[in-house]
Amino acid sequence: MNDLENGSTGEVPLMLPAYLAQPEEKWVSVLNQASTGDLNAAETLHEAFLPEWAWEISINSKDEKPGAFAHVAYSDQSFMAWNGKPARAWLKALLKALIAENGKA
């Protein structure tokens, strides 16, 4: 018996990105949490939208104006951002990367 006879279409299931499996309201909430300084929320966004990209956060607490640099990279692409809150720096770097990725489509 072949696939069509047993009711299967023979199609391979499509693997969707993690963010498409969640309601939009969830991502709005996670985005708000990251923008207010929640590092776990920033990591959730990173894993959902740029799962294969590397990331690094460097905290600078020695200057008059403490903050953090965030760096996201994949292959030959690299984006950095600074903010007084590490999660916001990470969010800014993620947004830069997403905008660049969108421009390629």
Salient structural properties:
3 helices, 105 residues, Double Stranded RNA Binding Domain, 3-stranded antiparallel β-sheet
Question: What's the multimeric state?
Answer: single chain
The helix/strand order is: HHEEEH
- Tertiary shape: globular
Unreliable segments of 5+ consecutive residues:
none
**Percentage of residues in DSSP E strands:** 15-25%
**Helix fraction by DSSP (H/I, runs of at least 4):** 40-55%
The CATH class label is Alpha Beta
Strands, total number: 3
Report on this model:
The chain is of the alpha+beta class. The chain has a single domain (18-104), classed as Double Stranded RNA Binding Domain, CATH 3.30.160. The chain contains three helices and three strands. The protein has helices at 24-35, 39-49, 86-104, and strands spanning 54-60, 67-74, 77-83. A three-stranded antiparallel β-sheet has the order 1-2-3, with helices on one face. β2 and β3 form a beta hairpin. α1 packs across α2 and α2 (39-49) runs parallel beside α3 (86-104). The mean pLDDT is 82.
In short:
This protein is of the alpha+beta class. The protein is 40% helix and 21% strand. The protein has one domain: Double Stranded RNA Binding Domain (2-Layer Sandwich), CATH 3.30.160.
List strands and helices in order, with pairings:
Elements: H1 24-35, H2 39-49, E1 54-60, E2 67-74, E3 77-83, H3 86-104
Antiparallel strand pairs: 1-2, 2-3
